[in-house]
Amino acid sequence: MKKYLYIDDESINSIEPLINGFNRSERILVKRMPLDKNEKIEDIYQKLRDLQYDGIIVDLMLNGSGPFRIACNSNSIVQYVRDLAERNEHKFCPVVLCSTDEQLQKQLHNGYTSGDLYDHHFSKDFSLNFDFEAKVLESLAEGYDKIIKENDVNELLKRDISHLDTRPFEPFIGGKIDVKQFADFILKDLFIYSGLLIPEEILCARLGIAKNGSYKEVLSLFASAKYIGVFKEVGDFYWSDIVCEIFYEKFHVGLASLDTEEKIKLLQNYFNDSELVEASLAAYNNSKRFWTVCVKTHECIDPMEGYRLKEKTILKPWQEPHYVSFNAISSGESNETDIVPIDAERYRRRVEFLQTKD
């Protein structure tokens, strides 16, 4: 069982529910790192050198108002853990950020935390799904261990990459794999941005099916496209090229060439299932050529009717941008200032057009 070290300045009584919740999952073992009030940073670093662990969970505000507050923030602790691994004084391991939902969302949005340092984050509130989060944390720790031991990209991805454009994988071919760089590649480049991989909800959007009813039976048709490499338990992802190949093999037509109604008819006939539910059209939208989802409302949308978000990093050629729908902006779930300027202008023109119709 993988062991996580939990670092938090709050009282033992206040953090016990979180620790016990994870431990009851019997997937990971979480133990609090002992802290003394106003403990010197050098002493904390010594503990991080001496203790054995497979991962770190760290609270966002270690220098907050807790009884065991320390004179540094979570970034300093995590950077030191990363430095230990670089110096071969401790193995590379996942580092996970947690806080209350309001604090976490605010700090992530404002760029207070360094995103490159953390592998995952969760909100420690009453809605926390311990079984799911424990599965994710277990997968992260196991994934890091696999990357440390294995130097074959094909084996780590459980896919022969010679069938793909190999440019995204070039930094990891022909030499010793950098553990942190490869972990970031999977967790941040492949999982966060669609392109080579797509999450289950985008697969459903491209198939034109709603995530209810018998949709799981439809997804079983694409089982061989499912990602089964390192960190596979973090989420359900599919190789986009294999999805398209399977669809063409079964229906002799390209997935992108059909609208939702045409896809639904093909799938209903194939599965003899007239109850298969078609994905809904987002408010104010017209196109049913769904290819992505709104990151705020999770509505299926045609990218041509979506509005691209400003990304915090420069997208690589094989990565797709994130989109929000007109409905998300007009309802206040997203802000006009969050989208790229050219799309913001297009949104304003759309608003003016709708106003003239009224």
In short:
With 358 residues, the protein is α/β, with parallel strands linked by helices.
What profile does the largest beta sheet have?
A: 5 strands, parallel
Low-confidence stretches: none
- Global morphology: globular
Order of strands across the biggest sheet? 2-1-3-4-5
> Taking Cα atoms only, what radius of gyration do you get, to the nearest Å?
23 Å
**Portion of residues within helices:** 25-40%
**pLDDT averaged over residues:** 91
Pairing-aware structural class of the strands and helices?
alpha/beta
> Please, how many helices?
13
Number of strands: 11
Order of helices and strands: EHEHEHEHEHHHEHHEHHEEEEHH
Strand content: 5-15%
Q: N-to-C terminal Cα separation, in Å?
A: 62 Å
